[in-house]
Amino acid sequence: MVSVLRRVARKLRRLLRGSPPAPQYAVADRNAFVSLIPHTHSVLEIGPFAQPVLRGPHVRYVDVLSTEDLRKRAQYLGMDETKVPTISWVSNGSDLSVVNDTFDAVVSSHAIEHQPDFVRHLNQVAHLLKPNGRYYLLVPDHRYCFDHFLTPSTIAQVLGAHLENRKVHTLSSVVEHRALTTHNDPARHWAGDHGDPEENRASRIASAAQEISDANGAYIDVHAWYFTPQSFRQVITDLSATKHISFSVQRMFPTRPNSNEFWTILQKHAA
């Protein structure tokens, strides 16, 4: 008993001599996060465009355009077309059924928020993973990007999209993305400067409505889902508990100061 009291007293003295150290983040940056994937693992990266987060002999890629077409698009956008990796599979929008292999890990960066059917996407990824495989995600935190003024997505909205078998984005998602967003500077958001949500609001709404009309039912690429680390974890937990998906959150890395993304690892359930 005396020894326990002495240890407690020593801890108290150390705390009184100064403030406890600030909490440390488990990984320093996005490169450190994806380096958690063992280098010998087979990996599929979804939607790399000209900025893949992983390279190496065990990494393969799926995107909505071929290597040649992605390089042309990168050049058109003023990006370095030589950064476009060799695309192994060209998907039709968000459909991953074209991929005919399985992997130890799947990784995506700022892709899951674009999926019209969140549940279907996760189930397709699970199908591509070997037993006990993991899905590594880099996800925008809506509080620190252009989605700041939009509210986090709920389990009801996610299940609604799945029950509808949604293949393209809704009118509300297009209007939100085109007309109700703000600047995309994370440092400004962290400093409390979120921009003016009313700036050009009417013209942006009108432009979004016209874009939807012109698309005539075709896919328009926008954000469908908005998350914080906490809300993302809750949606995954709810979907797993109700057996809509075969994933659980294995690790969650919070959004770092002055950044606009969090990182998470989903573990595929054992069969």
In the sheet with the most strands, the strands line up as: 3-2-1-4-5-7-6
For the record, the count of structural domains works out to 1
The global form is globular
CATH topology category name: Rossmann fold
CATH superfamily: Vaccinia Virus protein VP39
Largest sheet: 7 strands, mixed
Q: Helical content, roughly?
A: 25-40%
Number of helices: 9
| SS-derived structural category | alpha/beta
Low-confidence stretches: 19-24
CATH class descriptor name? Alpha Beta
Give the total of beta strands.
7
Strand content: 15-25%
How would you describe what is shown here?
This protein has a single domain, classed as Vaccinia Virus protein VP39 (Rossmann fold, 3-Layer(aba) Sandwich), CATH 3.40.50. The chain has helices at residues 2-17, 30-34, 67-76, 118-128, 155-163, 171-179, 186-190, 201-215, 229-241; strands spanning 43-46, 59-63, 89-90, 103-109, 129-140, 247-253, 261-268. It is α/β, with parallel strands linked by helices and 271 residues long. The protein is built from nine helices and seven strands, in the order ααββαββαβαααααββ. A seven-stranded mixed β-sheet has the order 3-2-1-4-5-7-6. The longest helix is centred in the N-terminal third of the chain and has 16 residues, at 2-17.
